[in-house]
Amino acid sequence: MPAGRRHRGDPGGRRAAAVPVRDRARYLEDFAHACGLRIAYDSRVVRVGRQDGGFRVSDASGRTYAARRVIVATGVSLPNIPPVPGIEAAETYGAAPTDPSGYLNQRVLIIGKGNSAFETADNLMETAAVIHVAGPHPVRMAWRTHFVGRLRAVNNNFLDTYQLKSQNAVLDGDVKRIERQADGTYLVTVSFARVNEVTKDIPYDRVIVCTGFRFDASIFADECRPQLVIDDRFPALTPAYESVNVPGLYVAGTLSQSRDFKRGTSGFIHGFRYGVRALHRVMESRHHAVPWPARELPADPAALAAAVIERVNRTSALWQQFATLADVIVLDGDGIRSSGARYLEEVPYDLQGPPIGDRGHFSITLEYGPDHDRIDPFDIEVGRIGQNDSARAHEGHYLHPVVRHHVPGEPPVAHHITENLENEWTSPEVHVEPLRAFFARRTASPVTA
User: Fold this and answer.
1) What's the pLDDT score for residue 380?
2) How confident is the model at residue 297 (pLDDT cuts 50, 70, 90)?
3) Residue 384: its pLDDT value, please?
4) CA–CA separation, 397 vs 379, rounded Å?
5) Domain 87-211, architecture per CATH
6) DSSP string of 110-161, one letter each residue
7) Out of 66, 178, 243, 358, which could bridge 226 as a Cys pair, Cβ 3.0 to 4.6 Å?
């Protein structure tokens, strides 16, 4: 929970006051006590193995726990160190001193092109003599890609010092070798990507590795070690947040980002908090015979359109977990006539499975347009559709609702609700009526396009 924000789900209906950072731990302890949570504090898990079809979890004090299922929410706790010869002699983001005075008049190489790299560079600009930020991939901006893990504006002051001739630079290429010299300095071999693979040896006083973090899978025994993806940084997951190769092993929190890596928000609290709720519902439905929460509504087109319009104008989950979570409308009936429908909220989009019933089902998401990350949002020469042009809503670049009809044996049929500057989709003519007409066509017998 960000500092200063209110927790909206405190037990007993009590509203917590804004919580300063210094009081966060005590607040969480009070919350756990009020909820009656069974938490073993100061317990470091050292091994997870299989036992009788389930799991046996051991901690450092010798206690063991038997479980049918295990949820791992340990985050990415290890630095992600690229396999570069000599890199062990460099400093890491977590260990390098942050006092800029310690870098006075030094030549500094920062390996990595993410926020931690540029945050470090920004911190040293006033004292270091030369700063190079190096990596094989292009610098991509968060405001252009709509992915908050890309370079944020608050960390990009360094780019001005590069492009406006202040002796700093961004190096596009691979660091091939790091050699520690007898005097404590470094000689670093860089292979440049944009100049026909030219290789150059460059001297530095300091080298700092800022290449992100990864999951620590060392606690798992061989028989239940989760398969890893994305350079072995994250567990490979099904749409239900379950390990693809270890049934019963689930993950929560930032570890779930392998599902939408560098596309969505599962790596961040404003996104994964909704993934955690979806995981809870997955486990209730799978293991405790508790159906996914749903509300009943009439299956007539006007009622379906009203339900969707009401949701897309207030949902935080679909807004934050765009193109990842979806609301789902299931039509009840015998396949010829449907008198009712069920509205399920915040289902992982890829968990929908095949179309439900003869008449299929509908999914509702919020999505950016295709190739949105290739468009400069500040380039006024790039055309945009009018906010009232519902016929061209599918051409929109910015976040907008998309309703899809999933029917057996056919690709999904999509209806786009046109993007809106205020993100308010309430116009009877522009938003509601085109959606009602879509539902009318898709629920007709026979179905029409």
Assistant:
1) 84
2) very high
3) 81
4) 13
5) 3-Layer(bba) Sandwich (3.50)
6) EE--SHHHHHHHHHHTTT-SEEEEEESSPP-BHHHH--TTSB-GGG-HHHHH
7) 243
